[in-house]
Fold:
Amino acid sequence: MFTGIVEELGEVTAVETLDDACRFRLRGPVVTQGAKHGDSIAVNGVCLTVVDHEGDEFTADVMAETLNRSSLGALQAGSRVNLERPMAVGERLGGHIVQGHVDGTGEILERKPSDNWEIVKISLPADLTRYVVEKGSITVDGISLTVVDAGPDYFTVSLIPTTLDLTTLGHKQPGDPVNLEVDVIAKYVERMLGDRVQGAAK
Structure:
């Protein structure tokens, strides 16, 4: 489990294309500290497993299902990525509960800078709109953010200078894809209420 508080802005150093998968080599001096085979690291919000670790770099295999459901397939050598290690038991939950299981992808639609923050508008797939509410939580490229406005096919977030400086959202432009993970609590509530409504109708 993750919190959506990005630890560092890493870099893809190599991409190896396999028959039905990809192998990424990524640089991240912070997240590789103490890393070992089998550990989990979130890359742009996608939970990946460390296959190999050497120095400040690690490799991770990404299967076709993940490539199809996320924006990782667009990564290439030199791409910047958000990196986060799993939350340790007993630590503060600085963001919100993030699983690292991407629900879909959106697209940067618009950026509106101001003196102290920036409003970013992002497209929202139709099957995810019911989970996104004003002032609710959403994960964008692994970043825990608060929804400012929830539209019928989009949402907006307000980014502080720290987020702009230390994550991929400081560099992405209109047209760029982003990974989205909605609040898992909303999905559980929907499932429980759905079962209850169906039971009452019988």
Observations:
- The chain has three helices and twelve strands.
- The CA atoms of residues 19 and 43 lie 22 Å apart.
- Helices lie at 64-69, 161-166, 184-201.
- The radius of gyration is 17 Å.
